[in-house]
Every structure is written in C-alpha cells, then in structure tokens.
C-alpha cells in the first residue's frame, strides 16, 4: 500500500454517513493546486475518513484548507459505456486544518481505557523506571 500526504482545499462540505454497524464514515474531495511554470494545474483526491475522525472532519466547511495523510488505493470499475477504468482513493490516517490559513481550538477526545489507568496524582514521570508502552499518556 502506498502512503500519500498532501494539502488542499475541500471542494464541498464533507458528507457524513453511518454503516449498518453504526461506524461513522465521511467522504470528501480535496483539490490540490500546483504550479508548472506559468500554468497552474489542479488534482482532485477522493478521501474517505472513518470512525471518530469522520465525525470531526464533518464539521469542516467547503473551502477549508486541510492536510491529509493516508493510504492510496486503486479501485477498478466499468463505465456505463463498458470502458474499464481505474479510480484512485485515499483512506485518511490523519487529517486536519492547515494552520497557515486558519486557527483551531483543540479539544481532546475521551481516551480509551488502558490496562493501567492513570490517576490525577500519578503519572509515568513519577515512576523511577517508567515503562513506555501503550499506556503512556501521549
């Protein structure tokens, strides 16, 4: 699988849906402008975002400048005229606003339970020999 990272503008407000199992999925299109000499070309990327991240990205508006990191996959399909085509799609691993063109307020989501929950009075830094595993707070 090929990784891809790009910055561009949303061409429309993301569309949020839920699967029959209740998992959130958002679909969006991102336009990436690039200059080639005197001319400017635009690439359009179809992006799929899953889970809580999909619910967060659904709050973005058309035109929002975003940064996307994800996995590029191809999909084979046939047109109504019977021509075989290949479509490229990105499944986002991370997405967020480009802070060169916007401000953002960060609100952390509730963390998932770990095997050893931390209390406010203790942290991994209190332990003289901390173990850095999946229960670290970052």
What does this structure look like?
The protein has 138 residues and is mostly beta strands. It has a domain of 96 residues: Beta Barrel (OB fold (Dihydrolipoamide Acetyltransferase, E2P)). Helix content is 4%, strand content 48%. It has 1 helix and 6 strands. A 5-stranded mixed beta barrel has the order 1-3-4-6-5. It is globular.
Write a brief caption for the model.
This is Single-stranded DNA-binding protein. The chain is mainly beta and about 140 residues long.
Topology overview:
Elements: E1 2-10, E2 15-18, E3 24-36, E4 39-50, H1 52-57, E5 65-78, E6 84-97
Parallel strand pairs: 4-6
Antiparallel strand pairs: 1-3, 1-5, 2-3, 3-4, 5-6
